[in-house]
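Changelog entry

Holo records now carry the ligand SMILES as an explicit input line rather than a separate metadata file. Below, a converted record for 2-acetamido-2-deoxy-beta-D-glucopyranose, shown in the new format.
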Amino acid sequence: MAQILHLYLLATLLLALSFKATSSSRHSGNNGLKSLHFALYQHETINKTGYIIVNGVAGAGVGQTTTPFGTLFAFQDPMTVTANISSKVVAIAEGTSITSSFDGLRSISIAKITLRLKNHMGSISIVGGTHNIKPADHPVVGGTGDFMFVQGYVTSSPVDLQGLTVTYKIVFHLYWPSYANKFSLHDKHVGNDIIT
Ligand SMILES: *[C@@H]1O[C@H](CO)[C@@H](O)[C@H](O)[C@H]1NC(C)=O
Ligand SMILES: *[C@@H]1O[C@H](CO)[C@@H](O)[C@H](O)[C@H]1NC(C)=O
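Structure line, unchanged by the conversion:
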């Protein structure tokens, strides 16, 4: 029992450390591109943070990991720093998905993720195909605030698909084009001009 607890504490510590390590991995050396790499955990609770809005019409039934073809689903899910839903919430994922395969496992998703990281506030928008039980890459199509002009991708992979709350690990790979820096410098300059 004590050993299990010890292992659990170690795992939690490692998770926390890996978040700190990855979240601070910000580079600007490669071709002048600034980038940010980190992972968060998205928790979705059926009929609490995610709802079927329109029922699907064919294929698989409503199950733990499947929904009928054409199902329209909407969600507003918290994203935390570790896989434990009680850990710190640093982002919110708002979006919708439509089941796009007859086996009920794939869908097309659109989401806005509002991020409150230590040094970056704003949102990114993602769009793309997702898979309910396998890892999937989603292109980042843009952002707002400190994420203005970002590109890159996020990878979602299932962590826990049992029970009413399902958890996905979301790994972010964000890249700022060189003109994003100029834009924000210019922006601050204009701001100062107005104040003085
Ligand atoms: C969620 O709500 C719908 C509609 O009220 C209901 O049919 C369904 O059984 C609920 N699902 C769960 C898992 O509670
Ligand atoms: C999650 O964290 C809370 C608060 O720190 C703790 O009480 C709980 O045991 C943890 N749950 C799991 C499943 O590890």
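Spot-checked after migration. The pocket of 2-acetamido-2-deoxy-beta-D-glucopyranose (ligand 1) is lined by residues 46-47 (CB under 6 Å). The first strand starts at residue 25 and ends at 27.
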